[in-house]
Amino acid sequence: MLIIKNPREMHSYSQKMRSQGKSIGFVPTMGYLHEGHLSLVEAAKRKADIVVVSIFVNPTQFGPNEDFRRYPQDPKRDQRLLKNFEVDALFIPTQKEMYSAGYKTYVEVEGLSKKLCGRSRPHHFRGVTTIVAKLFNIIAPDFAFFGEKDFQQQLIIKRMVRDLNLPVEIVILPTVREYDGLAMSSRNKYLNKKQRSAATVLYRALSLAKKEIEKGECNAKRVEQKMRALIKKESLVRLDYLAIADPETLEDVKRLRNRVLVAVAAYVGRARLIDNLLIEV
Ligand code: AMP
Question: How far is the CA of 32 from the centre of ligand 1 (A)?
Fold first, then answer.
């Protein structure tokens, strides 16, 4: 596995592969890898000739009081895992190289970026779309792989790709969960034993919503109330938002029909965790 730190070097590697007629699959991450990330790597390997993974903790997607400075990292372990998966190249640029002094350019998908997580993280998605656009320019992938766990993120990235005519196909993979339903996340590392156990209430609440909807409940408010009541029982969990929304527009829905996105975000100790389920009504 090649380890590339410099954006120019990364670009010329990609160009070289493309000139040899090879397709490139790209998996952007912030590292501290888990099975969720690795499921994206596996999908990339199935679909493309060359797999590039990036690890970059992107400062512009963190708010001033968020966990940028303490975001979990284990570069040695990450590299070992990726090598075992026979990834072709790992791109680990420095902050300075991605955002040189006087950096002033941002990519923003209006509207969608302000909903759900955008309410409590107002500049988050602008940071995400900016870094993803930069990485797409550097790596020029044919395919890029994202997790449904970050549902709003993948929706916004797909919109950016469409709006800016970026020549890349976005592939979305299902959420990988722990044995008890907790969505895998690098931020689960922040949880102590009690918090870890309380955090399962997010998936339990989503599963409750699924059960209610499958039983025929059509009223979103009533489903939400049941979810809130369940989450309230866990004193270590502080709900940020709970939404039942249209999976295309992220607008709240009142009457449940077709397909709905049920999404939650909550603070558990120092961790802000998110999860969601797409439910067929
Ligand atoms: P992150 O390193 O958290 O920025 O995530 C990098 C990529 O992995 C994003 O596309 C995430 O949606 C995806 N991802 C994170 N957690 C999971 C998970 N539990 N299952 C599937 N994909 C995930």
Answer: 11
Angle made by CA atoms 182, 78, 95, in degrees to the nearest 5: 100
For residues 274 and 124, what is the distance between their CA atoms, to the nearest angstrom?
14
pLDDT in tens, 221-254: 999 999 999 999 999 999 999 999 999 999 999 9
What are the pLDDT digits (tens) for 195-206? 999 999 999 999
The Å distance, Cα 19 to ligand 1 centre, comes to: 30
pTM over 0.90: yes
> Which amino acid would we find at residue 279?
I
Burial of 262 (0-12, 13-18, 19+ CB in 10 A): buried
Q: Nearest CA to 186 among 225, 150, 132? A: 150
Distance 102 CA to ligand 1 centre (A): 30
Tell me the C-alpha to C-alpha distance, in Å, between residue 69 and each of 66, 72, 76, 273: 8, 9, 19, 17
Annotated catalytic residue 34: no
Query: Could you say which of 11, 34, 37, 123 is catalytic?
Result: 37
Which tokens sit at 13? Answer: 């590697």
- Ligand 1 neighbours, Cβ below 6 Å, are 29-30, 36-37, 39-40, 146-147, 149-150, 173, 175-176, 183-186
Task: Locate 200 and state its tokens.
Answer: 């399962």
Q: What amino acid is encoded at 51 in this protein? A: V
CA 266 – CA 253 distance, rounded (Å): 21
Q: How many CB atoms lie within 10 A of CB 57?
A: 18
